[in-house]
Amino acid sequence: MYGAAATFYNLITGIVPENAIEREVHDTLVPPARLFGDIPAELSNAVMRALSTLPSQRHRTVNEFRDELTGKKVLAAESTPSEPDSTTMLSRSRSPLKRRSLRLGIGTVALALLTGLIGFVVIRDRLFQGAAPEDPGARAAPAMNTLPKPASDRKPGEVWTDPATGVELAWCPAGSFMMGSDALNDETPMHEVSFAQGFWMQTTEVTQALWKRVVGSKPWVAVRGGAHEVPDIDDCPGIYVTLYDAQLFANELNRRGGVGYHVPSEAEWEYACRAGSTGMFCFGDDESVLAEYAWYEETAANIGEKFVHRVRLKRPNAWGLYDMHGGVFEWCTDWYHSTYAAAPTDGSPWLTPPTSSQVNRGGCWASSAGSCRSANRNDYTPASFGSLVGFRVAKSDAPATERPPQPGS
């Protein structure tokens, strides 16, 4: 849709729009009616809607875009010529009548091309459908309208989007791993953790778009002007959230029809991060490769980018999980203990005895490489928030118990 609208915009104005991601950061696109006063407002509005940086605000189909143009007869509409905005005035080498005729003529050609594209798509779909009656389920978006496979049929890293919540998840299979390391005291003793059942892990941190859709607030905006810049961009992680906020978010997903959503245990987080790796990172021990997987001090803070970055721009781990190293610290449900002595070995969170702080994992955009290791641990009080901290949710097949954190001693 965006590409078709960009082509249309280019044909009637002579200007090539930037892509939607670049425009989210710095939008300079001017409505056609402001560039040329003789372009009908209806046409201008239709094109700008199709060029929205938010997919949810665009036309749902190319047919809908065409219908808004032709249904209002915007290409043939008569309007009184007016002077263009002084800051966007273009060449007046042609007379107003010639310019108007040329642009409306180009608009007609553009609409014809758009109609041809729609026709091609329809014919292509019919050819590939064959003679059999159309099965409504056969053309549904993958995973969006289907239940997940039985656990026994799922492959490690298999991605599924929950139709009840819209959350994209990757499958972490049942199995065992060695949790911890010998690098720091609080990562010892290394111990085997076994998951009798697999679980789902969100493929990215909870983004600003998802947070706004579920909660409706923008906690990262309220603190602008602080020590760090906070981009208000849909596919950046939602930050300035406490563990209380993260728990309430997971509970809200369950109340909206989801099943089993929870803030991950520390064991679930490390198991998912490693994705079968036994090295320092999900890809092994070669620190020089970390830049391909993580926003950390060498790829962010040390080069002046002291802020969160969009999710999915780095490589995922073997189970399809993005930004497990760096980006933002991610909340876990466990209370923080100085060693793993007496820690659970079944993958459940360590909830007793409570302490004064709770675990977060993964490092952040200001962290050293060592702080981004799979086994590295960090902790904050559960009411803490800041530009370095976000979270992702996990999901079990069975209903989850709501676990609002309780103040420790």
Write the layout of secondary structure elements.
Layout lengths: L1 H12 L6 H6 L6 H4 L5 H10 L11 H10 L24 H34 L29 E3 L6 E5 L2 E5 L11 E5 L3 E4 L5 H7 L28 H13 L5 E2 L3 H9 L54 E7 L22 E4 L15 E4 L8 E2 L3 E2 L14
Parallel strand pairs: 7-10
Antiparallel strand pairs: 1-2, 2-5, 3-4, 5-11, 6-11, 7-8, 8-9
- Mean pLDDT across all residues, rounded? 80
Through-space gap between termini: 56 Å
Q: Approximately how much beta-strand content do the residues carry?
A: 5-15%
N-to-C SSE string, H for helix and E for strand: HHHHHHEEEEEHHEHEEEEE
Helix/sheet category: alpha+beta
Number of separate strands:
11
- Spatial order of the strands forming the largest sheet: 1-2-5-11-6
Shape assignment: elongated
Bin the helical content: 25-40%
Largest sheet: 5 strands, antiparallel
What are the low-pLDDT stretches, counting only 5+ consecutive residues below 50? 72-104, 117-145
Total helical elements: 9
- Rg, nearest Å: 26 Å
